[in-house]
UniProtKB/TrEMBL annotation, chain A:
It is a multi-pass membrane protein. This is Alginate O-acetyltransferase. The chain crosses the membrane at residues 6-25, 37-58, 78-99, 179-199, 270-286, 318-339, 368-385, 405-426. Pfam families: MBOAT. Belongs to the membrane-bound acyltransferase family. The keyword Transferase applies. GO terms for cellular component: plasma membrane. The lineage of its organism: Bacteria, Pseudomonadati, Bacteroidota, Flavobacteriia, Flavobacteriales. One of its GO terms (biological process) is alginic acid biosynthetic process. One of its GO terms (molecular function) is acyltransferase activity. Its main location: membrane. Keywords: Acyltransferase, Cell membrane, Membrane, Transferase, Transmembrane, Transmembrane helix. It comes from Neptunitalea chrysea.
Automatic annotation (TrEMBL), chain B:
The lineage of its organism: Bacteria, Pseudomonadati, Bacteroidota, Flavobacteriia, Flavobacteriales. This is SGNH/GDSL hydrolase family protein. Keywords: Membrane, Transmembrane, Transmembrane helix. GO terms for molecular function: hydrolase activity, acting on ester bonds. The keyword Transmembrane helix applies. InterPro entries: SGNH_hydro_sf. The chain crosses the membrane at residues 6-30.
Amino acid sequence: MNWEPIYALLIFFSTVVTYVCANQIDKETEQKKRKLYLVSSVIINFGILFVFKYYNFITESVFNVLDSAGVRVHFPEFKLLLPVGISFYTFQAVGYTIDVYRKELKHETHFGKYALFVSFFPQLVAGPIERATNLLPQFRKEIKFDYRMAIDGTKLIIWGYFMKVVVADRMAVYTDTIYSNIGGHSAITIIVGTIFFAFQIYCDFGGYSSIAIGCAKIMGFDLMTNFKRPYFAQTPVEFWRRWHISLSTWFKDYVYIPLGGNRVSKTRKYYNLFITFLVSGLWHGANWTFVIWGGVNGIYQIVYSILNIKPSKNVKNVFVYLFNISTNFVLICFSWIFFRANSMSDAITAISRTFTAPGKFFMGDEKGFVFAIIGLVVLLGKDTYDEFLLEQRLKPKKIAKGAWYLGLVMLILLIGVFDGGQFIYFQF
Amino acid sequence: MKKYLITIFIGLVAIFICDFLIGTGLEYFYRKTKKSSHLGHITYTLEETNEDVLIFGTSRGHHHYDANMIADSLGLTTYNTGLDGHFIFYQTAALKSVLARYTPKKVVLDFSGTFEYDQSDYDRLATLLPYYDTHPELEDIILMRSYFERYKLISSIYPYNSLILTIMKGNVAKDSKKNLNGYSPINKVYKGTLDSIPVKEYYEVDPNKIESFKEFLKLSKDNDIDIVVVCSPNYYEFKKSYSLELCRDMCKEFEVPFLDYSKDEYYLKHVELFKDRTHMNKQGATRFTQEIIDLLKKS
């Protein structure tokens, strides 16, 4: 992820292109022309994304394939830095053009309001990828300061920082140590490292989303929920309804459904699912590890669909419920190995060593490990409360809520990592 | 809006009070950590040393120089201020805080590490945060961590961030090494073989590190301290080290003796003197300290 002032021109260009195309789509009555403007907008926007994010990956992959076949073709190489937030605002702007094309939305004629929609600062860098149908109407209204929203926003910001600084960055210290030398660690260490990564990425991205949504709330805007306690999901299908919801629904609405969705033959439906997840993997990064990660998740969807496994609605049956969420967690953790590994060979090493490398457990920095566990316990406690008790109206008193957020701030100061790196999703 | 601002104000007051109370408690127990503990060792180095001879260094310095042997042989009180993982920034900070109180007669700087930029070297300056308020001479070095450090330090807890368990341990653990004067012997023996390790022959230097190293030499010279820079033995072979070249050049510039044991044949033939490739064990440290004593006697 990189930021140069010149990259603002890219956002501006993308905004102008989608604005002009959407304007033309809205005006035109001839379907052929409307389609032409839509295709132009999609090609230009994804073209920019392709050049900056995927060009070198694709040419390198093609070169390797041809090279193994004895054919040598040299592609020009560009050393381009990935502009900050490009994957997010490109998807948001393209989604808008499609919505206007589908007549689900009237084109926003006010360029300033539309530009604000594309570049709304809290979610510009790493989402949530907003829908014009949700955000644009809010820009049209007069915004009055809302005490309740501002308080909720402040709470979300505190919780987001806790997730990022106390849990994600603390766990990152451990997972980075393990995954930077994956061949030197035992099975138990790799398993713990992968579990830690599962919570690291949840808290890193979920933390950012929480801060972004909180900032917007203080200003009086409601952004969509991006994470809904994903590790309480009982199946991979449910997991994707709780994880990075704004991206999952984007792919559902603009890739899966246009491919035919589930209103086609079963084989075609499975194909649609698989392709959608492969593309979703590629969206995350120009690396085969992300493509495989997407593919593995696509396979989960297909298998669960074939076996018709659905989440148990009877949460009171604790054993079934725990079995389901545990099974799902193991499957998701397996896929995270591909996401986290530095290369495909590292991912394969991690998987093979999980089954073949007995040995001692490596704790690394003991104090850091203990702090990570403390953070995890608080996280799971909060998520458990939100999952099961919040809707049962077991709401704590005001003073208890205040003490809780005060405690979170103290924990941030006491055991948070202040030398931590950037948010993981900034790189996408 | 008014109601929100009042709520935020009340929240900030509550945070300030809790931060002050917890921070004060942490400071109290931090200062009570035993001298031989990690934190007690730092406090002693920065605030209480009064010895004639001081050893500076990283973990290699910490484990390679027996302070009591030097004291007994030279008849000069000695303390080993070496600290694991802390390169030149910390060493210069330590020397500055020492010089704010008194001037030692002799200083041995065990050189290790590189002059290449490494963010972790800046991150580790967190070690000095508990002393920010009471040691103005450390301000410049602490602020190298980041410009915003001075604002973060408004919090009373922040200087003790991630230290709560270390503080507890430092108060509870036995003061077992209190008579070793900072020296930390290792009893393990290395089982590996003598390997050739790739060492960088050139890299882009971090100007802050160069400046800090020069400042250490200059402070010593300006205060008429008998200083010697030493690269203690290691158990690996290498062709050329840019870091050592830079160190040698700077020592030459300030007319400071530089003793390089990194390729010393005797140590490379005696694996039993090492704990791992870069650290000597107690046996190695005893032998090496004797060599340094002989050299210090001559100087």
